[in-house]
Design brief:
The structure is a homodimer. By secondary structure, chain A is of the alpha+beta class. Chain A has five helices and three strands. Chain A has a three-stranded antiparallel β-sheet with strand order 1-3-2. At the A-B interface, helix 1, helix 2, strand 2, strand 3 and helix 5 of A face helix 1, helix 2, strand 2, strand 3 and helix 5 of B. Chain B binds a DNA duplex through helix 3 and helix 4.
Chain lengths: 110, 110
DNA sequence: TCCTTTCATCGTATATTTGCGATAAGCAAT
DNA sequence: ATTGCTTATCGCAAATATACGATGAAAGGA
C-alpha cells in the first residue's frame, strides 16, 4: 500500500480508532480485565493467568501503555500496572458523542 | 508467529476485541459517522466524502458488514448501507460490564 | 562478588491489514 | 445488443501486528 492515509481523517476519528486498536486483541482485553479486578498488579501475575509467553505479555502491556490505557511504574525488579480510568472515560464520551445521540431516532432501514 | 492464540480467550473477550478491531481504523469511524448522520446512504456518497479510492471504501464497508456493525442490501446497481444499532448497544453493554462496575471504586494507583 | 528473580527489548518468522488499479458483475436505459 | 453507471472482487505490494526464544538490565540477597 506504500502510504497510510490515517492522517487524512479528523483527530477525533484518529483518537477513537487508536483507542479501539489498543483493545482490538483478546489478550489485551483479558489483561485489562485482570487489572480491573485487582485494581493493580505486577507483570508476573498477569503472565501466570495468560496463555502467552512473558515476552508477548510484556509487548501487549507496552502497547496498552503507549495508547494511554494503563499506567505503569517499574518498582525495583517488578513492574506495577493499573488502568487509566480517565482514558476510558474519554473514550466513552467520544464514542457516545459520535453515535448515541442518534440511537433512538433511527429505525432499521435496510 | 506461526500460530494465533486468539481462540484461547473467552468468547466475550473475543467478541469485544472483534468489535474494537472493526472500528480500529479512522476510515471506518468516518464511514460510520456518515451513516449515523444520514441514517442510510449508498456507497457512492461515502466514496465522495472520503480520501480513499472506491475499491478501498468498498473493502472497509465489507469489513464493517462482516463484523455486523452495518446492514447493507444491494438495490439494483446501488448498495444501501445503514448502521446496525443493536450491535452497538451490545458492545456498550459488554464494554461496561467489563469496566464500568469498578470505575469509581478505584483511585489512581501508579 | 556472584547468583537469582523479574521484566523489557531485540531479532526473527509468519500472518494480517491497508491500499490501489484493473477487472468483473449487475442493472437501466438507449 | 450495446452502452453507461455503480459496486464488488481479484491480484499485487508494502506496512503492521502477533508471537516467541534469546539476551539485557536492574535490583536484592547469598
Amino acid at each position: 500500500m506504500a502510504i497510510h492515509k490515517k492522517e487524512e481523517f479528523s483527530t477525533t476519528e484518529q483518537a477513537l480508532a487508536a483507542f479501539a486498536k489498543a483493545i482490538s486483541h483478546p489478550a489485551r482485553i483479558a489483561i485489562l480485565g485482570v487489572l480491573a479486578q485487582r485494581n493493580q498488579c505486577i507483570c508476573g501475575e498477569i503472565v501466570d493467568v495468560m496463555p502467552l509467553s512473558q515476552s508477548t505479555v510484556s509487548q501487549h502491556l507496552k502497547e496498552l501503555k503507549n495508547a494511554g490505557l494503563i499506567n505503569g511504574e517499574t518498582d525495583g525488579p517488578r513492574s506495577c500496572y493499573c488502568i487509566n480510568w480517565e482514558a476510558f472515560e474519554k473514550f466513552n464520551v467520544d464514542f457516545n458523542s459520535l453515535f448515541q445521540q442518534l440511537r433512538e431516532v433511527n429505525a432499521k432501514c435496510c
